[in-house]
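tool_call: predict_structure(chain=1)
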Amino acid sequence: MAVGFAAPIVRRQLKLRPTVVSALAWQAPIAMAIARPRSALRDAAIYGLQMWAYIAHYEMPNDDHDALLGRVHVTYPIKADTWIGAGTPPTVRLQRALGEPGRVFRHDLALAGIHWSWFLVPHGTVAYILLRHRDQFPRAAGMMAAVFDLGIFAYWLVPTAPPWWAGGNGHMAHVRRIMVEAGEHFWGRAWKPLYDFLGGNPFAAMPSLHFATSVMAAHVLSDVGPGHGTVGWVYAMSLGFALVYLGEHYVVDLIAGLALAEGVRAIAPRAERALLPAARAIQRLEPGAA
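tool_result:
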C-alpha cells in the first residue's frame, strides 16, 4: 500500500514509466483492503487511494507538455458547439450577454465559487453516504470512482482543448477564462499557488468530469431520498451553466459527461455481478475474514 501511495509522488524523480506507476498505484486500494480490518476509516482510505491513482493519471499526460500539445484536438468541440448554438458557441453567447472584459461581476464570483466547490462535492457526497448510509457506500463509491477512472481513458486517448484555450489561441472568437479572473480578484496573491496546485492538465476537457461526477453525485443523493436528490440536481445544473459561461467547458463536453455518468449507472448492476467473484476473493484475505 505504501509503495502504491509513493509511486505517483516519486515518478518524476525516478523517471518511472506510466505503466509502472499504473501497476503500483492501482494495486494500493486492494493492498489496503488486505492490510486492515473492515471499518469506515478503511473504506474511506480505499476510496482515497483510488482517487490518488486517478490524480496521477490525470496529470501524467502533461509531464511532456510539448508532446501533449502536439496531440491536442481543438476544432471538433468548436464545430459541435457552433451547431448547438445556431452559429455561435454558447460560451461566446453567454460571455457577451452576461460579462464584460476587464470587469469581474458578482455573478462571476458566484459562478466561480460554484466551480471551486466541485473539488468538495463529489467526494463530500461519497463521505456523507459512508457516514450516514453505509449500506449504500460500496455501490455509491464504486460508481463515482468508475466515472472518474473511465474519463481518464479519454484524457489520454483524445486530449481536447477547452474553450478558454481555443479562444485565447486564435481558434475561435475570444473566450475569457473568467474563473481565473475571479480567482485573482477574490484570492489575491494566494491565487497563483492555489491555481498551480490544482491545474495539472489543461487538455483534460472531454468529457467534462466536473459535470459527470456532479451528475453521479445527484443520482447517489437521489437514492437516499427526494430532498437529497433535489439538492444534488440543482447543484449539477448550476455547475453545468457555470462551466460553460466561465469558459471551462463546451456544451458538448457536458453532454459527453452526462452520457458517461448515465452509462456507468446503467451498467452498474451487471458490473457488480461480474466483479463479485473478485470482490469475494479479496474479502477472504481481509484481516478477521474467518
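agent: Residues 11 and 21 are 7 Å apart (CA to CA). Proceeding to next step.
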